[in-house]
Specification:
This protein is of the alpha+beta class. 35% of the residues lie in helices and 25% in strands. The strands form two sheets. A five-stranded antiparallel sheet has the order 5-6-7-9-8. The chain has a four-stranded antiparallel sheet with strand order 1-2-3-4, covered by helices on one side. A hairpin with a 5-residue loop joins strand 2 and strand 3.
Length: 277
């Protein structure tokens, strides 16, 4: 009887140790994304999941993977895609544990042209920029070279990889801390000011930090101050600060796509307009 129990326990141990991790499943799925029959057993409730991650369908990308535990039975795999020009961006695969097996239930990334109000800057030649600036049109999108450079820098940073966006923060951390402290001090002293008036006060600082604004009421969060790089409706990327870590919203492919801790109360965040699952 004792030998029989040992055999059963050994078999169970082998069975569970053979189960793939979310990281392994993510790599397997993306290596076989054109052959659904190979990875179908890893689909949560047999969902149809969009796996077309390429920004440019004509280019090849190398992929690297990192796993972030959200809850005991909920993991996000952050995948960084890099092309031959060393341009990188991230997308995310979401996993739940179902009957002791990890299953993918969603995959998300920001749209290829997420921020149209600044994205046009990438399509303009310098000659065209000069022409717009020199025109007399009442509704010019660009009124100066400085404004154009600011818009282009915002778009460029917002479309970079998570590591690069976090590095930008770390490189300028003292200035971010100063802005945060100054903003809190200013809003306490000027309670009657509108959000627009508060943001206007710090416009020159935003230029230096490649930010488009500050939001005290970022969707899906509470008790945060968000430092927005790019935003269009609920498509957004930036940083937020909070002193209440326990109140941070859970990562959700139907809203707050991804949150990554930077340290000292600061976080990278990405949001997307999409119905919740």
């Amino acid at each position: 009887m004792k030998s029989f129990l040992i055999i059963i326990l050994s078999f169970t141990s082998v069975l569970f140790s053979a189960q793939k991790t979310p990281l392994e499943i993510a790599e397997f799925i993306l290596s076989n994304k054109e052959a659904k029959e190979k990875y179908q057993k890893y689909l949560y409730e047999n969902r149809s999941i969009e796996l077309d991650y390429k920004r440019d369908k004509k280019r090849e990308y190398s992929l690297s993977y990192r796993e972030f535990k959200v809850e005991e039975n909920y993991v996000v795999v952050d995948v960084t895609a890099k092309n031959s020009d060393n341009k990188k961006y991230d997308f995310y695969l979401y996993f739940r544990k179902d009957n002791n097996e990890w299953k993918i239930f969603d995959a998300q990334k920001l749209p290829n042209r997420t921020f149209f109000y600044v994205g046009f800057s990438g399509d303009l030649s310098q000659k065209k920029v000069d022409s717009i600036i020199q025109s007399k049109g009442e509704y010019r999108l660009i009124t100066s070279q400085k404004q154009f450079d600011y818009i282009k820098n915002i778009y460029s940073l917002g479309m970079k990889s998570d590591d690069e966006i976090i590095q930008h923060f770390k490189d300028l951390k003292p200035k971010f801390l100063a802005l945060k402290n100054d903003f809190i001090k200013f809003k306490k002293a000027n309670l009657e000011y509108t959000d627009y008036e508060k943001n206007l006060k710090f416009r020159d600082v935003y230029d230096k930090l490649t930010l488009s604004g500050i939001d005290e009421f970022l969707p899906f969060t509470r008790n945060t101050i968000a430092f927005i790089i790019c935003r269009e409706q609920n498509n957004a990327v930036g940083y937020f600060y909070t002193e209440k870590k326990k109140e941070i919203t859970i990562i959700d492919p139907g809203g707050m796509l991804f949150i990554r801790e930077i340290g000292d109360g600061w976080y990278l965040f990405k949001m997307k307009d999409k119905h919740k699952n």
